Amino acid sequence: MNSRNLHVIIVGASISGLTLAHCLSSTNVDFTLLEARSSQFTHGAGLVIQPNGARILDQLGLYDKVSRQAERMVSHTTSFDDGRLLLNIDIRHITLRRTGYPLSIISRQALLSILYDHLPRRDRVLFDKKIVRVTSSPKAVTVHTADGSQLCGDLVVGADGIHSIVRSQMWQYIRSNKDAARFFLAREMPLHVSFTGVFGISDPIEGLEQGIAYRTCGTGWSMLILVGTDAQVFCYVSIACPPSSKPHRRRQQGKASLEPMLEPFLHVHVTRQVLFREVFLHAKSCTYVPLEESFQNQWSAGRFACIGDAVHKMTPNIGQGANCAIETAASLGNHILLASNTDAPCTEESLGSMLGTWETAHKGRMRTFSWVAQSVARIEAGGNCWKRFLRSYLGYYHAAMGIALLGDITPQTARVQHLPLPPHKITAVDSRIDPQEKDWSMRFSGIPVVSTIIVALLLVVQSLTRPEPSGVI
Ligand SMILES: Cc1cc2nc3c(=O)[nH]c(=O)nc-3n(C[C@H](O)[C@H](O)[C@H](O)COP(=O)(O)OP(=O)(O)OC[C@H]3O[C@@H](n4cnc5c(N)ncnc54)[C@H](O)[C@@H]3O)c2cc1C
Hints:
6-stranded mixed β-sheet; globular; flavoprotein; 9-stranded mixed β-sheet; signal; monooxygenase; 14 helices; binds flavin-adenine dinucleotide; Monooxygenase; alpha+beta
């Protein structure tokens, strides 16, 4: 085997960039990770680690660390905004039984710290390196930083989020090299903002219990409250906004400036006893963000590739943004390793062709996640009677199955090919003695029929127009 020590430049030290760095750390591939921030610390609230992300973290030796800092999710409640409970699902075993991994609630900051602190080649991560330009030649790719420095490599990977500079530079490259377009109508997809969101972290609140996800929906909005370790409360409010030609407000922080926007939600029930007002009053941090959605139809060209939010940005309603970012990073790592282990010369064409194979293999799966996230966001915030019916119907009859199937591990789920699969963690749960298991087995018995119905219903919803604005923004 020929080891050619490919040098990969990764732009962005967040979930996807650090996961890719971990995947490459145990190989002969060299990498440099450049991050615009001045330190590892960043904003964000809570994330749910689902089995598709958990298995990769486990392969990388990080899952036990994640488990120690995460709260295992025990139940998921869906309520109407007046506090009436639609459904409470005990989800302790739902994913554990099928995959060996429970759903876990962890703060975004804790996950990023684990990814960074346990990176074997931490000296390869450089902070305060904002990329402003990327140029490519047949021999190498060069990234230019805001401080005037340059770095050359074989491949540049944009793990730099929704406003990816690498993605825009890749499209500039495609425009000047028409052959690099993967199909006739390939183009950079615009970012859509149909929802804006507020992320927050609050101190413990009496009545909100650790390990529970509280979901409430209303016309033009939906709300998800996750209670993590030490009863820390992570909240996420998604608000439908009217179509507008005006650019949306930029990221904004602070309780005082967000109070007018959240005022209409203060009376909303999180549970029968707890109002959203409590969550807001206890908030330690609050951030407003436009929730862009975009699925890019081309992820790579020549010596460029993009992963994570840079190519598949979804609303957080199904909690898959971070898990999908982990998956795309691992799948790209597999293909980079294959390219570095072949005898063929490392040309722009050979790298482009390797990246084309990666895209074809992985893009369809991510398209499905993006589509489901898009549909769920619209159903949850739906205002007309059809969407309200659909919301209650799906929430009541199919929430459990949706939760189980979304993060499920299937042959298509990405994993790190050069690392062994973790030993199966399932401790057999006897359905004869656990009533929850019996209930769960019954819910699962109609998978094929029910899945078909769900897909048909979602298809109808997809064809509907924008979500009804809540009138708040
Ligand atoms: C600040 C923030 C908070 C979030 N909070 C939550 C949450 O609480 N719950 C939830 O479910 N989801 C949250 N998300 C979404 C979820 O975390 C994303 O789906 C996931 O982080 C995607 O990871 P990523 O690595 O692809 O991109 P990102 O997490 O967006 O990371 C991109 C990285 O690239 C860096 N970067 C950007 N431009 C440049 C440049 N020019 N040069 C160098 N570096 C650059 C950024 O500083 C950042 O570190 C949040 C996202 C962000 C950005």
